[in-house]
Amino acid sequence: MCYMPLQLLPLILIASSDFQLPELRLEPQLAVFNTFVEPNEEPELNEKTLGWGDEGTWRWGVHGGYAEELKNNENELILLGVEFDYFIANNLSLDIGLNLLNVTQIGDNTDGVNFTLQLRWHAIAKEKWSFFLEGGAGLMLTDNNVPQNGSDFNFTPQAGLGFSFDAGDQSRWLIGLRWHHISNANTHRTNPGRDSLMFWAGVSFP
Question: Rounded distance, CA 85 to CA 159, Å?
């Protein structure tokens, strides 16, 4: 008797039967990646366009004025100047001015320069016009004494009221009436002082 190795038994069974290995079908498949591309979204612009009288804006302008002393109308003052305004709050500006002066008075007439610093509050502010109050002070230096028996260096407190009107392209016409004082505050041996009523007008640009 001959013995068959056990290792050959599976091969004999496969050869003597209809046994078939399952057919393996390998088909290439495309890998589909589901990608989502977000459209380009521009951030919304919420910034407000700043206009006339808005906090944080600057303006500049030119102006001219004429004043007569209240006690003696022969004493006159003419000024021409430039002003820079910064709105520290809505409708409230801090104004810095530089003026050239011509002073007519009893005695020697004179010319000079005047630096001013003041606040201007547009108490009624409309789109086309406003009503304002203003007040401040300045320094004045002249060639000759003002008044005649005073000094060539003076302080210039002032206060007044006025209106502004829309002039187009964010420009404004301004007109005003103010009390204008000249005094050396007793820094000189005499301090006669001088009080005037001044009418002035100007234009302001953004």
Answer: 17
Which tokens go with 173?
């016409």
Query: Which amino acid is present at 79?
Result: L
Contacts of 94 (CB under 8 A, 6+ apart): 85, 86, 87, 88, 117, 118, 119
For residue 46, the model assigns a pLDDT of 52
User: Which residues are CB-contacts of 145 (< 8 A; sequence separation ≥ 6)?
Assistant: 107, 108, 110, 151, 152
Give the whole-angstrom CA distance, residue 167 versus residue 58. Answer: 17
3 vs 156, higher pLDDT: 156
**Is the pLDDT score of 179 beyond 50?**
yes
Q: For 114-153, what is each residue's pLDDT tens digit? A: 999 999 999 999 999 999 999 999 999 999 999 999 999 9
Task: Tell me which amino acid residue 172 is.
Answer: R
- Tell me the pTM: 0.75
**Residue 186 Cα distances to 10, 29, 144, angstroms:** 130, 102, 17
Say how far apart CA 151 and CA 156 lie, in whole Å: 13
SS3 label, residue 12: helix
CA–CA distance from 104 to each of 4, 85, 112, 127 (Å)?
144, 29, 11, 40
